[in-house]
Amino acid sequence: xxxxxxxxxxxxxxxxxxxxxxxxxxxxxxxxxxxxxxxxxxxxxxxxxxxxxxxxxxxxxxxxxxxxxxxxxxxxxxxxxxxxxxxxxxxxxxxxxxxxxxxxxxxxxxxxxxxxxxxxx
Length: 121
Hints:
Layout: E1 2-7, E2 25-30, E3 36-40, H1 50-60, E4 65-68, H2 73-81, E5 85-88, H3 94-102, E6 107-108
Parallel strand pairs: 1-4, 4-5
Antiparallel strand pairs: 1-2, 2-3, 5-6
């Protein structure tokens, strides 16, 4: 199984980034091979549709699970349609995120969060 986590950096000590479409990186943890792949989020610098770009990038990576802060309506719809499960987590170290996921302590994201338009927050 491949788990994608929105992250502020490239190591397990870095924090989860609660922004999905605008996070710096995605850390993709393969639970079978134990490999970790770091990819730069293609959506982070886009003027609009950051969540869409990020969603499509993770679909291309064939992830099974996404862990982030929240998903905007477009990202949520794309991810739901792709059959990818999404879970909510706070900005804690990635190592703790994985631990909480493995213990079944994360809440599944069942509804979209607020829409963000452009780079303004």
